[in-house]
Amino acid sequence: MQHNVLILDFGSQYTQLIARRVRELNIFCEIFPYNNPPQDLSSYKAVILSGSPFSVRAEDAPHPDLSGIRGKLPMLAVCYGAQYLAHFNGGEVAPSNIREYGRANLSYIKEEELFLQGVQTGSQVWMSHSDTIKQLPENGVRLASTNDVENAAYRLDGEDTYAIQFHPEVYHSTDGKLILENFLVKIAEVPQNFTAANFVDDIVAELKEKLKDDKVVLGLSGGVDSTVAAVLLNKAIGKNLYCIFVNNGLLRKNEFESVLHQYKDMGLNVKGVDASDRFLTALAGVDDPEKKRKAIGRVFIEVFDDEAHKLTDVKWLAQGTIYPDVIESISVKGPSATIKSHHNVGGLPDFMKLQVVEPLRMLFKDEVRRVGATLGIDPELLGRHPFPGPGLAIRILGDITPEKVSILQEVDAIFIEGLKANGLYDKVWQAGAILLPVNSVGVMGDERTYEKVVALRAVESTDGMTADWVHLPYEFLMKVSNQIINKVKGVNRVVYDISSKPPATIEWE
Ligand code: XMP
């Protein structure tokens, strides 16, 4: 993989967004914590310094060593980076006496500067800082100002070093992406060649080289990440990839059979293992959500380990890890975060002692989907809603029985099919049904009934961290509710969840 742009992270909440914006320009970039940068910078063509929650004047603030970078590679310093450069190079940074947070507009733009080419006076920018640069460093040239922030952008004369006080990566900075493009493409001349097709070519070659004739085992979940990882590995090593798809008995209706079928059609060397009974036995009588999760995790490891043992000479465990997980584990917050529990090998199942290969570890979720599309994976599979690992177990409140699973599978299938049939599925980020541990009174024909209540949940979100309930049309809810009560024996009432996250969560358990 080519290393084009290095983003040094000083702990800003927006660092991942910088990477997203750079990738949108088809430029490959990597985030490293400022205190643990790569040793070899020879393959990087530009460096971006992120913002930070610290003030440069604080004693414990990040003090990066930029001697290997400044003046040697084009550098863009954002917010904290801009202040850091000023503070330690003869400029002056002081607490600001007005609030410099939120939207502002550029009131001055220096003419004929490549960095701000195409940006008009009045352009909206997003500020988020409490210190301000009172005086530029010695060779600083002011490039832009707002009414309140005189030194909103500057460069250092005689070198390709640029600094901006505002955040180009934030959506509210209208020309932010253009400024990044000016810096990366026009000034640093970074090639825009990071496309899904190029990624596939590069990673397949890399996997071939790395894995040679070794055998690799991978757990498929039916989700996007493990599927795309499997197809890439299959392209690289073919039948030496052994996929295992476990039915925990808590999947959606018919999902195990239909997804297994799809996997086989895709040419994957996959074994379907129906371990429903093992999971349901382990879950019998368990009603605490965390105990359910633990039991499912434990049984999954047992089942996977049993299957992996049936294979001989396996050297690698493949995982569908994606970039946000990687960034999280190398965060500035400290080395403790880098120690993942499975690195603590004592007493672990054998398959966890295998070497790990993660073909998607440099990709964001939307990039995984684009790679999947390039690989010709069914768009329906790529567009599937997220589904939790513990599956329906955390949507059956209270204890779990095969009957409850079956009721919920029927309800869920009617809801999801209904969303698809009415063109609503792709407008929803995640949807599902929840079986409540209460009975309510109803009347069907002349009969009094006393049956289960189900809740329907449909949310919009981008990453699951926050979410809002979707305003599904009443007509649709009415139809689905009628269908559920008429068709699913044991259910006589349907409610719709209208809670946002926070304060609620997406799942009920
Ligand atoms: P919450 O309920 O925390 O869910 O708002 C956020 C997202 O995470 C999924 N989720 C899980 N996924 N194992 C998983 O693999 C779990 O134990 C789990 N709990 C919640 C949930 O479906 C939603 O997408």
Automatic annotation (TrEMBL):
Pathway: Purine metabolism; GMP biosynthesis; GMP from XMP (L-Gln route): step 1/1. PROSITE patterns: GATASE_TYPE_1, GMPS_ATP_PPASE. SUPFAM superfamilies: Adenine nucleotide alpha hydrolases-like, Class I glutamine amidotransferase-like, GMP synthetase C-terminal dimerisation domain. Keywords: ATP-binding, Glutamine amidotransferase, GMP biosynthesis, Ligase, Nucleotide-binding, Purine biosynthesis. Residues 194-384 form the GMPS ATP-PPase domain. The keyword Nucleotide-binding applies. Transmembrane segments: none annotated. InterPro entries: Class_I_gatase-like, GATASE, GMP_synth_C, GMP_synth_GATase, GMP_synthase, GMPS_ATP_PPase_dom, NAD/GMP_synthase, Rossmann-like_a/b/a_fold. Its EC number is 6.3.5.2. The active site is at C79, H167, E169. It is an enzyme of class 6 (ligase). ATP binds at S221, G222, G223, V224, D225, S226, T227. It comes from the Bacteria. Homodimer. PANTHER family: GMP SYNTHASE [GLUTAMINE-HYDROLYZING], GMP SYNTHASE-RELATED. Catalyzes the synthesis of GMP from XMP. This is GMP synthase [glutamine-hydrolyzing].
